[in-house]
């Protein structure tokens, strides 16, 4: 990705865990330009927000 992809987002979400990714997804679907920042290059770690309620995946459906 180029730096221009990150220029002037409407929203910057800090943290790419379950809550951060869902927040970014929902705002992007609402028309916002979103950048999600995550410091870890992989997901080999414990999440603090790893419990996802059963209704959460609904926004992922088309």
UniProtKB/TrEMBL annotation:
SUPFAM superfamilies with a match to the protein in the record: FAD/NAD(P)-binding domain (SSF51905)
- Which ranges does the record mark as transmembrane? none
Q: Which organism is it from?
A: uncultured Sphingomonas sp
Return the Pfam families for the record: FAD_binding_3
Q: What is the lineage of its organism?
A: Bacteria, Pseudomonadati, Pseudomonadota, Alphaproteobacteria, Sphingomonadales
Q: Could you tell me which residue ranges the FAD-binding domain spans?
A: 11-52
The GO terms describing molecular function are: FAD binding
Protein name in the entry:
FAD-binding domain-containing protein
InterPro entries, A to Z = FAD-bd, FAD/NAD-bd_sf
